[in-house]
Design brief:
The protein has 120 residues and is mainly alpha-helical. It has a single domain, classed as 23S rRNA-intervening sequence (de novo design (two linked rop proteins)), CATH 1.20.1440.60. 86% of the residues lie in helices and 0% in strands. It contains 4 helices and no strands. The longest helix is centred in the last third of the chain and has 29 residues. The mean pLDDT is 94.
Amino acid sequence: MEKAKSLVYDKAYLFAIRIVKAFQFLQNDKREFILSKQLLQSGASIGANIAEANGAISENDFSSKMSIAYKECLEAKYWLNLLKDTGYIDNNLFKSIIVQAEEISKLLFAILKTTRINKQ
């Protein structure tokens, strides 16, 4: 499972970089200050929670942090959809970022599923 954690961490970190850049674009170019902060918070939180999970002191702690990372990823996808549907980001930007979010959420879900199966 160590490789999966590393892979998902790396993908979440790269995603966070894109989210920071999207945040800067939304703030500077689109003058959007509310939704962009929500996106920044949830998008950056995914990797932070994975980092905490990697330092977990128990299996329950690991599962809890990965679960939070998964939920933050779902939230980030919500904000991305809302930003697209309100015209703050175009379809091309949306499609390129949402693909990353989908991949991360699938990896996190698989990790959570494996963790819960191993508990039983």
